[in-house]
């Protein structure tokens, strides 16, 4: 059966042409029936139909009104009949949930916590508000106007703040998965250690030591869940912080390098360029010029 989705409304990252933000309407589960591990944040709102979500070692029933949230490379799959809805995707260069945590407080509630459910059931009385926000985003994507990037981020913030409030009010936090407990606990601890030590520990071996396991075993469970290596995840966290400093501060690159645990600017610049094919200075110049 042919995939039934509307063409995506999308804006590109002006630095490298990659996807920055997009919206896709879908009329069945075709976009998600295979295991998904995409490199950007995903918000999926189901407004018709019902099905089954497989994510975070657990299966969840979903129905009209369910909104799903996935961090980059978080694996998930949706099966079901007559599932219709809308999906928003955004890259962390476009909107970083870590950077904006104090404003929207969604990191660890909607995203980046596999011990919580990746879904929120939107109450009927909140549906009109969600639909209005989705419509405003779609209109802005279709007809780009002045300060499009700022306006889209404002709509996204309003959406995330409201859904975070709904989830907190519903108290839908669940305990850590009971299946594969040892491995799921190790994954949670690994991500927590990355957030705590990424400025000083850059190798998979250092995190394996903290977890009291071999590098091989750490690599196995991380690949099974995320489809990536531990080094990929460590690098991503370092690069996210580097991008944040390059974009939001006027710190010299040498200072950023030292803050992130590199012995000099040269090693940091080489590390950064190997990760995203752009030097730190070129990234800072091009992004500020494009989005300011």
Outline: globular
Task: Determine the mean pLDDT.
Answer: 84
Along the chain, the helix and strand elements come as EEEEEEHEHHHHHHHHH
| Integer count of domains | 2
CATH architecture call of the largest domain: Sandwich
Tell me the major beta sheet.
7 strands, antiparallel
State the CATH class of the largest domain: Mainly Beta
The CATH H-level homologous superfamily of the largest domain: Regulatory protein AraC
Strand content: 15-25%
Task: Report the CATH topology name of the largest domain.
Answer: Jelly Rolls
Distance between the termini: 44 Å
From the helix content, strand content and strand pairing, which structural class follows?
A: alpha+beta
* Overall radius of gyration: 20 Å
Q: Would you report the number of β strands? A: 7
Helix fraction bin: 40-55%
Low-confidence stretches: 173-181
- Total helices: the number is 10
Per-chain topology:
Blueprint lengths: L8 E4 L6 E8 L14 E15 L2 E6 L2 E5 L5 E15 L10 H4 L14 E3 L5 H16 L5 H23 L10 H17 L6 H7 L4 H12 L3 H19 L4 H7 L5 H12 L3 H12 L1
Antiparallel strand pairs: 1-2, 2-6, 3-4, 3-5, 3-6, 5-7
Helix pairs in contact: 2-3, 5-6, 7-10, 8-9
